[in-house]
Amino acid sequence: MKTVNFLYGRTTFDLEVPDDTPVLTSNVDALKSDKDGYEIVKEAMDHPIDSPHLYELAKGKPDCTIIISDHTRPVPSQDILPHMIRELRCGNPDIKITLLVATGFHRPTTVEELKGKLGDALYEEFKDNIIVHDAHDPSKNIKIGNLPSGPDCIIDKVAYNASLLVSEGFIEAHFFAGFSGGRKSVLPGICDAVTVMGNHCGEFIASPYARTGILDKNPIHEDMVAAAEMAKLAFICNVVIDEDKKTVAAFAGNFKTAHRKGVDFLSDYCAVKPAPADIVITTNGGYPLDQNAYQCPKGMSAAEATVNDGGVIIMLATCQDGHGGESYYHSIADAESADAFFQQCLHTPQVETLPDQWCAQIWCRIVRKYKVLFVADKAQEQLIRDLKVEYFETLDEAYARARELKGPDATLTCIPNGVSVVVKD
Residues 47, 71, 83, 106: which is the catalytic one? Predict the structure, then answer.
């Protein structure tokens, strides 16, 4: 027997399993670098991929808007932005630089969060030239075309009016866009709610290509690329970070090919092959990603990629902060069944997509097909039951129930950190 440690909040649940039990883990522990993040970014900026240097792009441009990430993304902006700003001013010492915060569908970023992200010096220098995107204010956004799938492509007017549009960002696996970074700084980053919801529609979320680690044929990704092209995103600098949120690699240049280089780099560390099993245990990576139920389809989707038809998924997440979104919660809790809401999503017209429908749809896609046993804080028992899955206080209890359902000879696969792996053939 061996012990597997499953991340849960700031601790672990441990389980004794047979020695031959597959344990799917990424190689992200090897994502390390002896170099300073600031130095890593400089090297990337000095060798842009399929693009002129940023200082060359800045020549003759009176202004530039840099799309920066919001408070929900651990992008090490203090490694990236100084280099971008330096090159812009090298190309044009008088260039006016605006920082546009890509909030996407999230709440506005606060001043304190901006100070934490940028550092005091950068914040003080740019505080009068920081714009926080608002997806829900049509007066601040403008239509620039249509996405390939049909919906209006509406972006922030600040980006539209920029003589030069560039972005920072980071690359990680994403459970329906394939990977974050690159084109995602535009859509959903600085797009109107109409465009975001059109891109995150039921049909697209249901696509077998809208999965973790998949870009090719992914309809969500394809629309995102088109939006970035229409917005004239001219240059990116994206980084890969380790588990301590330290920069370990950087990719600068063309928003498509530089991003793809970063994706290929990261895939070497996080891709794992499926180990099909009747019972799969997964997590949302512990704190901070397992604080609410809204985030949990990420870890659940890792199990979905390797569980047998009719199998059991055991999901571990504290959900200490509750559901994470009223519309998310009610979409699932108020539905007749998980399948009923899933079918509703499939038949919801693209332009009528509901807020947060996409995460609720993925939750229901999994719950309708597999038996989900959910381990969470005791205070969240009713919440978990409302979300149409079985509740358990401990992993031992959930595992005993799984054996009861699937039998003593059922096969088992363990995923200690469900958000750190890309499970695919």
Answer: 106
- Residue carrying structure tokens 């651990």: 74
Catalytic residue among 174, 221, 259, 323: 174
Return the closest-CA partner of residue 114 out of 95, 63, 103: 103
Question: What phi, psi does 160 have (nearest 5°)?
Answer: -60, -40
Q: What is the dihedral of CA 268, 102, 153, 203, to 10 degrees?
A: 50
The number of helix segments (H) and strand segments (E) in the chain equals 16, 19
The DSSP string of 344-408 is: HHHTS-GGGPPTTHHHHHHHHHHHTTSEEEEE--GGGHHHHHHTTSEEESSHHHHHHHHHHHH-T
Q: Please give the distance of CA 58 from its chain centroid, rounded to a whole number.
A: 30
- pLDDT 10s digits, 399-424: 999 999 999 999 999 999 999 899 98
Whole-model pTM? Answer: 0.90
Dig out the tokens for 271 from the structure.
């891709």
CA 228 to chain centre: 17
Radius of gyration of the chain (CA): 22
174 in catalytic set: yes
Q: Does the annotation count 221 as an active-site position?
A: no
Residue 318 CB partners (closer than 8 Å, separation 6+): 8, 9, 287, 290, 291, 376, 377, 380
**CA–CA separation, 173 and 100 (whole Å):** 24
State pLDDT tens for residues 223-270: 999 999 999 999 999 999 987 889 999 999 999 999 999 999 999 999
Domains, the chain, ordered by start: 2-24+275-423 (3.90.226.30), 30-269 (3.40.50.11440)
